[in-house]
Amino acid sequence: MTLGDVARAAGVSLATASRALNGATQVRADLRQRVRAAAERLAYSPNAHARALAKSSNAGVGVICHDIGDPYFAGIARGVMRAASRHDLQVILGSTFRDPLREISYASMMRGQRVRAMLLVGSGFENREWQESLRRELDLYRATGGRVAVISRHRGVRADAVLPENRGGAAELARSLLALGHRSFAVLSGPLSLTTVVDRLAGFRSALASWGIHLLSTQIVEGAFTRDGGYEATQELLRRGLRATCVFASTDVMAIGALAAFREAGLRVPDDVSLAGFDDIPMIRDLTPPLTTVALPLEDLGERAMEMALLPERPARVRVERVQGQVVLRASTGPPP
């Protein structure tokens, strides 16, 4: 007989069942009574040694991101580590390389390490099976007293969250590009299985639609969230016949690859085609030309998420902090030719 059996019999979450049996004061009296009655009915007896391990304190926090080599995640990780150092905590870092199964595996491993808090950094996946598997893994972790916070939208995962306004930032960028005079656009979208891509593409499209402009499917090219992904997606866009006066790459690293592809094709940015990205990673300011983008406070995102994960838990609700992006117009965009 397991704690999960007791939780199901009592009709409560695994975390609530654990708190009720451990005497936590934040559990309502009726729920505590229901859990204890179910435990007695099922003859459940928690293992004292396992309970002691669950309550033990660990000086580590786990951070699961897509790719620490990506400057976006590196910037956030710096913020996480700065906040962790203030609390004398060590950071255990795992890169999933956007493999949803690897993300679940890392969550399981860090649960086994009994880290004090776990941070999921980066986009969630538009995949119901993954969502349910990750939710179950995080419920088991919370049942031992672990804390979870996420950066970016993770559908189906109930956790404190720091949410960059991806949709709103992309919409504001589109409006800024429209103000420059552009009416024909193409998008290097990134993998459509990621919530970040879904949100940025939706925001960009909605702002264009408000002006009566609709993106054709042929003007949206999916590619990896990497420099090479942006390069290859731009090559595909050129093969299809570039009809846009402005190209929006859903991340700055994709835009870097796009800039190289345009140069190889003999196209000048922004004289022949304007180019914009998203995130404002440090290196794009030194490109020729410097890249127009939506700036996010990357290190601040990491610090906020780390501090949020270490705050006292509020079982009744999750905390959400929304972070606005700021459009920064640089020399990679100009009026249409």
Automatic annotation (TrEMBL):
<dbReference type="GO" id="GO:0000976">
    <property type="term" value="F:transcription cis-regulatory region binding"/>
</dbReference>
<protein>
    <submittedName>
        <fullName>LacI family transcriptional regulator</fullName>
    </submittedName>
</protein>
<keyword id="KW-0238">DNA-binding</keyword>
<dbReference type="InterPro" id="IPR028082">
    <property type="entry name" value="Peripla_BP_I"/>
</dbReference>
<dbReference type="Pfam" id="PF13377">
    <property type="entry name" value="Peripla_BP_3"/>
</dbReference>
<dbReference type="InterPro" id="IPR000843">
    <property type="entry name" value="HTH_LacI"/>
</dbReference>
<dbReference type="InterPro" id="IPR010982">
    <property type="entry name" value="Lambda_DNA-bd_dom_sf"/>
</dbReference>
<dbReference type="InterPro" id="IPR046335">
    <property type="entry name" value="LacI/GalR-like_sensor"/>
</dbReference>
<keyword id="KW-0804">Transcription</keyword>
<dbReference type="GO" id="GO:0003700">
    <property type="term" value="F:DNA-binding transcription factor activity"/>
</dbReference>
<dbReference type="Pfam" id="PF00356">
    <property type="entry name" value="LacI"/>
</dbReference>
<feature type="domain" description="HTH lacI-type">
    <location>
        <begin position="1"/>
        <end position="55"/>
    </location>
</feature>
<keyword id="KW-0805">Transcription regulation</keyword>
